[in-house]
């Protein structure tokens, strides 16, 4: 894996010099500004890192924001135990390569310690239980700000959320009492026990993230590119064939050439059939896709019209 | 390709959400599954037809009540530009939400219902757009189909709007007759209004020049964070991380640090750890100076021959945003300006502006939610500011309640 922060963007700068600013430069400058506001305003921030493309983008932006210094906050991963192995390997390699502090907390441990009841049956997921581990981790390390890779184009509740999203002592988001967020004056003042979730790439679209990964020459976990895989075909969606997914009598086991468009838990992330083996090919496919990212790949959002809004009110990202 | 941020102001009755829906739909920015979701939702509500407004209302209570409560952001693009649409509620009780959305906009679309013409709400939205210094305003006279696509009706509304605009400072105004429902003059030129020869809404959005709106003259750089790696190789490295608010900075420039007034020269400008020759407005960079002087977050680096005003006494237009407490003379707040925070106290309320009639109201004792007024503040530390109408980035500030920590006021320093 090679991650070159500088070379690609140098070339880009030469090309775009003196013309109207490129939108990727504008989005990048805004995200770096937000990262630095976090470092300037908070005592104990953390960057939530999953090994997915959005949080990989965040780490890259954080490196640029604080170069030649180190990223002044740890990377934190809430591991559900249902993650893709490729994402976990990438996570560990990247943390080591950039010499970042990596904190991993396991949902499994929270389940045991707190006697939490897991969902059962078809489409059971630990997605909701992550919130407990996340809130415990915030408390354990007294994090006052957590940087996350959520984007407003992903989902309609997220489209309403602030860049500095205030959470009360229970981690809850209250959409009706959001702080006004004016100009680029972010208000990160909080009381002890409260925290702020910060979303530096709020204004990026899925395609912006892919274009940026390409421009910057950022490596990704291999599951983002087309490969042969054994899958469970269920309700028209292709899920990774893994023991963590409870079998259903209707399931069919198939082998297909696929890639993952998002990388969440194996229980709630579907693959898409694809032959796209390079970033260019992936971008070309997404550009002509007529289905949104979460619509195509997320099983967790499709339960009700307000599934995400309800999860966020409970402290979810 | 660059980025344009625009706000749409108007109530649901004006067809604001329908207009955004129409823009997204006609520029092919609505995806199949989103369309299916809208179709499903449209069917469960009373209307049989597809309701494009359902695209923008994100929260459950908004969908239930059929109104927009909070600012929503939508993203779309054409081959010529990327757009961030800021959908703000139009009702007077949500004025603070519109101010929030307007603060970052390059352009405002103000909707007027062709049947009603310029109404109180139009006046309010226009005042906010003008006060927040939005450089470009499009007045979309909507529902033209309901007035028989009449040119006379349009011209009458255009005339009365121009009279209103004369009392405000709107730099670039375009008035367009549209029908969001039918898609007339939104993306495609209207066939029912061939008397209209001007641009379509999308054409204005695509072509308006926002680069010229940035303040390129006054070099201002608010320090966010000091980068000090303190490793063996980078033992003496001190980089000032920030974003150029206005103007440009380059190597060798003589600078001054405010409020300390210490002077130095730029030794180097870096981006992502690499040296770059210069940094211009809105770029996030790191500045290194020739001299080792005391600089920390909250300080402003400015070009030496062009100074902002440095003062503890500030006059500002404020939009009050607290629904629980009022602003009164004598009250104390935290003022956040750039990266600086200072305690401040309210010395007085000079006058309130009636946001519907634009009249000045004297002898106002307190400001309630959504009130706009000119106030006098005294800060604990000097603030290095420019007048807002000259420099949006360095003339804006927020007031924070010291106990609840909520953002309670939006200030445009005069």
Which structural traits does this protein have?
heterodimer; A: 317 residues; alpha/beta; 6-stranded mixed β-sheet; 4-stranded antiparallel β-sheet; globular; B: 414 residues; alpha+beta; 6-stranded antiparallel β-barrel; 8 helices
Notes on the protein architecture:
The complex is a heterodimer of chains A (317) and B (414). By secondary structure, chain A is of the alpha/beta class. Chain A is built from 10 helices and 10 strands. Chain A has helices spanning 7-16, 23-41, 53-66, 85-97, 107-114, 130-141, 206-216, 279-288, 293-297, 307-313; strands at residues 45-48, 75-79, 102-106, 145-147, 164-167, 195-198, 227-234, 237-240, 252-260, 271-273. In chain A, the strands form 2 sheets. In chain A, strands 3-2-1-4-6-5 form a 6-stranded mixed sheet, sandwiched between helices. A 4-stranded antiparallel sheet of chain A has the order 8-7-9-10, with no helix packed on it. The longest helix of chain A has 19 residues, at 23-41. Mean pLDDT of chain A is 84; it is low at 1-18. Chain B has 414 residues and is of the alpha+beta class. Chain B is built from 8 helices and 22 strands. Chain B has a 6-stranded mixed sheet with strand order 2-3-1-4-5-6, sandwiched between helices. A 6-stranded antiparallel barrel of chain B has the order 7-8-14-11-10-15. In chain B, strand 21 (396-400) and strand 22 form a beta hairpin. The interface between A and B is large, with 61 and 69 residues.
Give the helices and strands, then pairings.
The complex is a heterodimer of chains A (317) and B (414).
Chain A: H1 7-16, H2 23-41, E1 45-48, H3 53-66, E2 75-79, H4 85-97, E3 102-106, H5 107-114, H6 130-141, E4 145-147, E5 164-167, E6 195-198, H7 206-216, E7 227-234, E8 237-240, E9 252-260, E10 271-273, H8 279-288, H9 293-297, H10 307-313
Parallel strand pairs in A: 1-2, 1-4, 2-3, 4-6
Antiparallel strand pairs in A: 5-6, 7-8, 7-9, 9-10
Helix pairs in contact in A: 2-3, 7-8
Chain B: E1 3-9, H1 16-26, H2 32-44, H3 60-65, E2 72-77, E3 82-87, H4 95-102, E4 107-113, H5 120-131, E5 136-142, H6 151-165, E6 172-177, H7 201-207, E7 220-227, E8 239-246, E9 248-250, E10 254-258, E11 262-271, E12 274-276, E13 278-280, E14 284-289, E15 300-303, E16 309-320, E17 332-337, E18 340-353, E19 360-361, E20 372-385, H8 392-395, E21 396-400, E22 407-413
Parallel strand pairs in B: 1-3, 1-4, 4-5, 5-6
Antiparallel strand pairs in B: 2-3, 7-8, 7-15, 8-14, 9-13, 10-11, 10-15, 11-12, 11-14, 16-20, 16-22, 17-18, 17-21, 18-19, 18-20, 21-22
């Amino acid at each position: 894996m090679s991650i070159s922060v500088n070379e690609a963007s140098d070339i880009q700068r030469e090309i775009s010099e003196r013309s109207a600013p490129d939108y990727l430069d504008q989005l990048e400058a805004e995200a770096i500004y937000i990262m630095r506001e976090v470092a300037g305003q908070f005592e104990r921030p953390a960057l939530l890192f999953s090994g997915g493309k959005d949080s990989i983008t965040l780490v890259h932006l954080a490196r640029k924001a604080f170069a030649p210094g180190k990223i002044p906050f740890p990377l934190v991963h809430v591991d559900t135990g249902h993650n893709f192995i490729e994402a976990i390997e990438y996570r560990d390699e990247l943390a080591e390569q950039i010499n970042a502090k990596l904190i991993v907390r396991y949902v499994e441990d929270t389940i045991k310690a707190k006697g939490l009841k897991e969902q059962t049956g078809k489409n059971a997921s630990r997605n909701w239980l992550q919130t407990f581990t996340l809130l415990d981790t915030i408390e354990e390390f007294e994090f006052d700000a957590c940087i996350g890779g959520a984007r407003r184009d992903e989902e309609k509740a997220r489209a309403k959320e602030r860049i500095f999203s205030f959470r009360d002592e229970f981690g809850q988001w209250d959409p009706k009492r959001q702080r006004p967020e004016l100009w680029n004056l972010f208000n990160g003042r909080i009381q002890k026990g409260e925290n702020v979730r910060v979303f530096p790439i709020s204004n990026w679209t899925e395609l912006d993230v892919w274009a940026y990964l390409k421009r910057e020459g950022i490596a990704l976990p291999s599951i983002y590119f087309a490969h042969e895989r054994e899958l469970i075909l269920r309700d028209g969606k292709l899920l990774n064939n893994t023991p963590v997914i409870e079998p259903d009598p209707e399931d069919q086991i198939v082998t297909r050439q696929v890639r993952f468009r998002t990388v969440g838990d194996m229980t709630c992330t579907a693959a898409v059939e694809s032959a796209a083996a390079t970033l260019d090919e992936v971008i070309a496919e997404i550009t002509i896709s007529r289905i949104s990212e979460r619509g195509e790949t997320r099983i967790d959002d499709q339960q009700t019209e307000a599934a995400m809004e309800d999860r966020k009110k409970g402290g979810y990202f | 390709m660059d980025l344009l941020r625009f706000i749409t102001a108007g109530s649901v009755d004006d067809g604001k959400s329908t207009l955004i829906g129409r823009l997204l739909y006609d520029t092919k920015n609505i995806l199949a599954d989103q369309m299916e979701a809208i179709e499903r939702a449209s069917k469960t509500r009373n209307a049989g037809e597809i309701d494009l407004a359902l695209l923008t209302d994100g929260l459950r209570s908004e969908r239930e009540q059929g109104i927009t409560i909070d600012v929503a952001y939508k993203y779309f693009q054409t081959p010529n530009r990327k757009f961030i649409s800021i959908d703000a509620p139009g009702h007077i009780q949500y004025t603070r939400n519109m101010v929030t959305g307007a603060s970052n906009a390059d352009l405002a679309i103000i909707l007027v219902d062709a049947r009603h013409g310029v109404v109180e709400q139009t006046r309010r939205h226009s005042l906010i757009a003008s006060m927040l210094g939005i450089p470009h305003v499009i007045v979309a006279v909507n529902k033209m189909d309901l007035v028989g696509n009449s040119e006379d009706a349009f011209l009458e509304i255009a005339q009365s709007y121009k009279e209103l605009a004369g009392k405000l400072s709107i730099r670039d105004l375009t008035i367009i007759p549209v029908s969001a429902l039918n898609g007339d003059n939104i993306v495609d030129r209207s066939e029912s209004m061939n008397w209209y020869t001007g641009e379509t809404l999308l054409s204005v959005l695509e072509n308006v020049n926002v680069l010229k709106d940035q303040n390129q003259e006054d070099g201002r750089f608010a320090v966010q964070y000091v980068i000090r790696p303190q490793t063996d190789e980078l033992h003496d490295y001190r980089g000032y991380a920030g974003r150029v608010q206005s103007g440009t900075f380059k190597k060798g420039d003589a600078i001054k640090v405010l409020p300390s007034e210490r002077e130095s020269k730029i030794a180097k400008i870096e981006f992502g750890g690499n040296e770059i020759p210069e940094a211009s407005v809105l770029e996030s960079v790191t500045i290194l100076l020739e001299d080792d002087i005391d600089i920390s977050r909250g300080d402003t680096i400015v070009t030496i021959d062009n100074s902002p005003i440095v003062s503890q006494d500030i006059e500002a237009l404020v939009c009050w945003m607290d629904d629980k407490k009022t602003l009164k003379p004598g009250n104390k707040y935290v003022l956040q300006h750039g990266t600086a925070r200072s305690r401040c106290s309210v010395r007085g309320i000079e006058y309130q502006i009636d946001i519907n009639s634009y009249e000045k109201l004297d002898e106002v004792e307190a400001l309630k939610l959504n009130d706009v007024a000119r106030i006098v503040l005294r800060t604990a530390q000097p603030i290095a500011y420019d007048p807002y109408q000259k420099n949006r980035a360095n003339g804006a500030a927020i007031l924070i309640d010291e106990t609840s920590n909520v953002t309670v006021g939006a200030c445009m320093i005069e």
